[in-house]
Design goal:
6-stranded antiparallel beta sheet; single chain; 8 helices; alpha+beta
């Protein structure tokens, strides 16, 4: 007989017949203390023929296996869905099944080499395209989990800025800074640009220059140049702020040595913006 279970972080909970409401309210069956989670965010319906998930009137919606859903959606074994900044995984557990060679459950995620969508490492195959994991893959490390956390934080930061939730923005930036400063995780370039743009925008809106300085440090540490959009953001800051940031901008420019540029081509237009930024700060 099949049983149903939710996994989130390193925790598990069994699903019983009926309805499980997930949200920020203490009256929910599963309470998630996250400002981006609505009081009643999602509803999981457990029946004899399986489980389904639906939006319970949330502010930010629900994504299953990377796609935003509308209406009731059936949950397949290994499905991942996001509520706020939290990722949960749905599993079907067979009581009579024996898995002598099953890898240990870790709660970590990998990206499918075929379709690119993320899924749990303890799933035998990608729930989106069905590609099987290679048995020779190494056990995931904490770096895998941290990389996935950065992806979630970058995307959630963008949404919080669209909604104008200033108190959430700084909290998310602090979380991202903590992850990046305590691990050697490799960050996807798109997410790096997203985090940096969010930090500079927040600095401009709140006059907290330290976040723009932190954003520039993300690039100087990696020896790469920010994109043109971020360069334009920096150039639009007040003169006093630009002068304060000049050393951090100069550090980005001087970090672009051939030895650490790697395979990524330098965006000459963006580099020109940064050089002009330092020249104007020194002249002014």
């Amino acid at each position: 007989m099949a049983r149903y279970r939710l996994r989130f972080l390193l925790h598990e909970m069994d699903l019983h017949p009926g309805e499980l409401v997930i949200g920020r309210s203490a009256t929910c069956g599963l309470t998630i203390d996250d400002p981006l989670v609505s009081r009643s965010h999602a509803r999981i319906l457990v029946g004899e023929d399986g489980c389904a998930i639906e939006d319970a009137g949330s502010r930010n919606g629900i994504r299953v296996n990377g796609r935003t859903i509308s209406g009731r959606t059936k949950l397949e074994d290994g499905a991942r869905f996001r509520v706020g900044t939290q990722e949960l995984m749905f599993r079907i557990v067979e009581d009579a099944a024996v898995h002598p060679h099953r890898r240990r459950s870790t709660g970590f995620m990998i990206h499918c080499t075929s379709c690119g969508l993320p899924y749990a490492t303890d799933a035998p195959q990608c729930p989106n395209c069905g590609k099987e994991q290679r048995v020779e893959e190494e056990e995931p490390t904490t770096t895998t989990e941290q990389a996935w956390s950065i992806e979630l934080l970058a995307e959630t930061l963008h949404r919080a800025q669209v909604l104008g939730r200033q108190q959430d923005i700084e909290r998310l930036l602090i979380q991202a800074r903590g992850v990046l400063e305590t691990t050697s995780v490799t960050v996807d370039r798109r997410r790096l640009d997203q985090l940096a743009a969010g930090a500079v925008r927040f600095a401009a809106e709140t006059n907290k220059v330290e976040w723009a300085r932190w954003a520039l440090g993300l690039f100087s540490k990696r020896g790469i140049v920010p994109n043109v959009e971020l360069g334009a953001q920096l150039s639009s800051l007040p003169p006093s702020t630009r002068e304060t940031l000049a050393p951090a901008v100069r550090a980005v420019v001087t970090s672009l040595r051939p030895a650490n540029v790697g395979d990524e081509a330098v965006d000459e237009e963006a580099l020109s913006l940064l050089r002009r930024f330092t020249e104007q700060s020194e002249a002014g």
